[in-house]
Prior knowledge:
10 strands; 2 domains; Rossmann fold; alpha/beta; five-stranded parallel beta sheet; 10 helices; elongated
Amino acid sequence: MDKRVLLIGIQKSFMINAIMIGLLKEDFQVETAGPTKSAISEIADKPKVYILYLGDFTEDHLSVLKYLNEAIDSERFMLYLIGNKEELDLAMCIIPKEKIQETYLRPLDVKLLVQDLNVVFDYSAVDESLRKKVLIIDDDGAMLRMMRTWLSVKYHVYMASSGKIAMSFLMQNSVDLILLDYEMPVMSGPDVLKEIRETPAIRDIPVIFLTAKDDKESVMKVISLKPAKYLLKSMPKEKLIGAIDDFFTVLENRNKSNK
């Protein structure tokens, strides 16, 4: 698969040129655009990965952040931001962090960016039918979007904002894993798990609880329901994704040994 990316920033910037050269050396195809809606819109066949360099931005360029915030929902590209702490904080006041794939402090380590992008393109090359399907159930829209952003690099991700919606979806679609919020109104996580386990067609789907509480009493309540695993919502991105990757690895090894 062609490793195409769109690099957005002030075109005569020294760093834009350095980032482009670094990516080209690693066999990426780099298209560039100035930090304006018109410059980005003029690109006919846009890549699915956008890299936005925030250095040298002025107030005149902030409108591009509003444009990207709206466009990312409909065009579903992956957005990477590069800037200093102040620039990144400002950008995330306009583009919620749950929509951003990754942020990098400048001066940028291009090797780190290349490493992360290679993961994206390596998984993009995987046969779609081989990708695991993950359903996330959570009443928090921001959490749903953030988890989708994090996991969509490697997995097919589906979302449900309530237990009722999730049950309706599961009766018509197969998934390999359910990530279930423990605390939800109306139909709680334990209620959803109970209904899943009482429904023959879906009772064997592994369920991992997502919980915001890590005190001993809360953890023991979660464990007592015997989910496949539980994960804390406060876990860093890398650890949470790693835990899900490890879960699938263990599951696959177990299935192989049982054959």
